[in-house]
């Protein structure tokens, strides 16, 4: 499922973060920390187990290192064939 969550996009991604979005009884979503945080500590969430390709295309970044490594990106443009522009 895809949700629009205003404010949630302010949190940075870490593939190892455990900060789930859980449904509430009234149809909303609740973020619940799975660890204790100290004042000023950055709160990280996971955007999901995504490849470098998916992170780059959907969010505009690739974190080093990214656990689900291994993807390729094949771009094709009309009029371009084997490096020759027509």
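Sequence proposed for the structure above (86 residues):
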């Amino acid at each position: 499922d895809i949700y629009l969550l205003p404010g949630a996009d302010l949190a940075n991604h870490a593939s190892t973060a455990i900060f789930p979005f859980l449904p509430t009884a009234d149809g909303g979503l609740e973020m619940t920390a799975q660890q204790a945080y100290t004042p000023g500590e950055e709160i990280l969430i996971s955007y999901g187990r995504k490849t470098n390709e998916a992170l780059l295309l959907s969010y505009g970044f690739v974190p080093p290192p990214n656990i689900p490594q291994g993807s390729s990106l094949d771009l094709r443009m009309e009029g371009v064939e084997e490096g020759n522009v027509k």
